[in-house]
Amino acid sequence: MLPTPLHVVNEGLAFFMELAGLALLAWWGWSTGGNTVLRILLAVGAPALAATVWGLFAAPKATFAVPLAAVLLVKALFFGSATAALYALGRTQPALVFALVAVTNTTLAELDRWHRK
User: Fold this and answer.
1) Domain span at residue 19?
2) Using an 8 Å Cβ cutoff, are 7 and 109 in contact?
3) Could you give the number of structural domains in the chain?
4) What's the CA gap between 34 and 36, in Å, rounded?
5) When you count CB atoms within 10 A of the terminal residue's CB, does the N or C end of the chain come out lower?
């Protein structure tokens, strides 16, 4: 179990990573679209879809209670998509750092939740 200060920092980091993931998807959408309408659709649609799926299955107060494996799958798809978006934007090293932080943060959070039960 993580000490309380580390638990709070890790939970804060998790929230920041979720927001960063949405921002990265929006950035990718805006950069990918060929015209203004497509740019807006992708910049709004990609993060909106990701946030909806997250809220339904992976959020702490998710709409649907699913097994841990499903939650981890949604998180892997979300963070993987954000990492891929960053990579597609030509930011290879930041993409690697983002992925490593996401995996480490999620692993610590899930182990901490398991120990707190």
Assistant:
1) 4-116
2) no
3) 1
4) 7
5) C
